[in-house]
Amino acid sequence: MLNSIRENIERRLGLESKKAPSKQGAVIENLGEFSGRFRNWRSNDNLDGYPFIENTYAPFTPLKRALPMLNLALISSAGAYIDGTEPFNIESKDGDTSYREIPIEVEAEDLLYAARGYDPAAVKADRNAQIPIERLLEYEANAVIGNLNQVWWSVSSHIPNAAAVANELAPRLAERLHSYEVQAALLVPASRLDHQTLGIVARALELSGIPTMLIAVDRAMIDKVRPPRSAYYNGDFGAVVGKPNWKQYQLRVLDEAIRWIETFDQPGSRKLVVDLETETEQERGEK
Length: 287
Fold this sequence. Notes:
By secondary structure, the chain is an alpha/beta fold. The protein is built from 9 helices and 10 strands.
């Protein structure tokens, strides 16, 4: 079964053929141009001179099952790993394209973070700010979603080599999500570069047949990489789901974003209303 899943994904992503897919069907539209410029990039934390991906088109897979009936996957690029296991390599120029498959039963205190490009203080104080396990389990209990998948996926917070994301990480993640019979995926980047990484992953997942939603706090980046569905607002890197230890803030971010998986009928990006509602709540002293 896994071989057939892999073959199907490779066919959809164009990995089984030497012929480049059309721009409309590409995970990265100008992959050769990126690879050439990336080789000449002098690695730095500020990403000065970095050849960011710029796509024109976005793939799109309609949601075929109502939210209360679907199995939702969660992918976070906070670089989380279980204490006692090997951390992500965040020092190499290419980045680490491995992933960690973490059971939802693993407690927050058992997680460590290989963080680069964002401040991990918020996720350490409250993992739901970046990895909303408890919030999504509440949605499951209240039948907003059918269920949160039994494992979630953690990827590195620093993967500059976008070609490796498209050719290695994204197909492997797509294969794993299909093996769990996931019907939709929520992606949460932690840093500026992560918006590109998970934007590429989202494109690959949609090309493989899985609808996605990416929550963003860097609109300029998602306008470049063009994930199929994205919800953005004026938030903070490292706390993309909402401020730590502020449950209602996090629920406001998640509520619209998750429901929009169902209502999008074409690729696009929408602004969340969380900013205005949060300002009102602060003024009333209701936090």
